[in-house]
User: Which sequence fits this backbone?
């Protein structure tokens, strides 16, 4: 692992919400790091706590339940979780930005594309003149591959396809040369061809600003294509972390193996995909011991799985940890892409 300081270092992040039935943890003790120019893929089924973790760091949890967040999240040495709201607002969109999965609902239909990208810059750089601001917007639109930006800058979101709208969202995310970009399922709503184009746009933008990227997704093919390291989450906790090559060729947690086996293969023709049996537990009804053991092919009712919560064990690979009592019994799985 690199010895350079982490752009973002998260330690023991816990996010829970208070309801009439009691307090429930949606995220339970999550830790990870990502460095400048590096991409960390965060994968897992819906409800595993991926998005909630990132929203908590930025103070963007939705209204409703009484959220409680503890832990530490150092962005370039400054704890995001300890910042007062006014300072955190200055960080959002400046030092750290987020790309959401549905660009059409994230863009305001009554403002032009130029106004919206320009606003993202003006909030953090109010000293810029109108001419400087326009030049900056045009550069960003050109950077993300929008043709004829001098004409498109005056157009509105409804005049953009889904792929072009996502390019605009990437431009807004990169507008202030952020240290960290968080991308939440950035290609989910796009077809495969457009997905490949968006990935290339994202790569180019990150390369220009040397930004760190946290990529939240359930798409393992996307992770294999873009990520340097991978963190696998299940039921609010990290169950495995490794560099991308190690994880895909030598997984050491049964849940990771299950995710890989559920991905369609181009080499084999199968009528049905392999499924992980059962469902992910809700925060209100998590099993004792290892939270994955009721669905695990390896557990087979063994007592440690049912009783003892597994720590993140160091495995036989460098910088590779897995929360499985029997990680050494997990068979290596071939790469899925």
Assistant:
């Amino acid at each position: 692992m690199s010895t350079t300081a982490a752009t973002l270092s998260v330690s023991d992040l816990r996010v829970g919400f208070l309801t009439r039935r009691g307090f429930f943890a949606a995220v339970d003790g999550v830790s990870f790091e990502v460095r400048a120019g590096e991409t960390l893929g965060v994968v897992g089924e819906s409800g595993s706590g991926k998005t909630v973790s990132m929203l908590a760091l930025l103070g963007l949890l939705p209204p409703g339940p009484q959220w409680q967040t503890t832990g530490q999240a150092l962005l370039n040495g400054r704890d995001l979780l300890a910042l007062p709201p006014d300072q955190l607002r200055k960080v959002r969109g400046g030092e750290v930005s987020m790309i959401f999965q549905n660009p059409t609902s994230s863009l305001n239909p009554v403002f032009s594309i130029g106004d919206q990208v320009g606003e993202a810059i003006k909030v953090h750089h109010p000293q810029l003149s109108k001419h400087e601001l326009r030049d900056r917007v045009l550069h960003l639109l050109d950077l993300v591959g929008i043709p004829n930006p001098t004409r498109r800058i005056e157009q509105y979101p409804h005049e953009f396809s889904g792929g072009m709208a996502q390019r605009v969202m990437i431009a807004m995310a990169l507008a202030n040369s952020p240290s960290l970009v968080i991308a939440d399922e950035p290609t989910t709503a796009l077809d495969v061809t457009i997905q490949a184009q968006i990935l290339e746009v994202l790569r180019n933008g990150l390369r220009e600003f040397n930004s760190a990227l946290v990529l939240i997704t359930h798409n393992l093919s996307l992770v294999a294509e873009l990520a340097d390291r991978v963190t696998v989450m299940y039921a609010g906790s990290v169950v495995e972390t490794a560099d991308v090559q190690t994880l895909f060729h030598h997984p050491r947690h049964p849940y990771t193996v299950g995710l890989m086996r559920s991905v369609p293969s181009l080499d084999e023709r199968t009528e049905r995909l392999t499924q992980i049996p059962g469902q992910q537990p809700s925060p209100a009804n998590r099993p004792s011991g290892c939270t994955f053991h009721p669905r695990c092919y390896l557990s087979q009712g063994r007592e440690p799985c049912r009783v003892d919560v597994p720590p993140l064990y160091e495995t036989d690979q460098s910088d590779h940890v897995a929360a499985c009592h029997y990680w050494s019994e997990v068979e290596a799985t071939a790469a899925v892409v």
Remarks:
- The chain is about 30% helix and 20% strand.
- The mean pLDDT is 89.
- The longest strand covers residues 22-34.
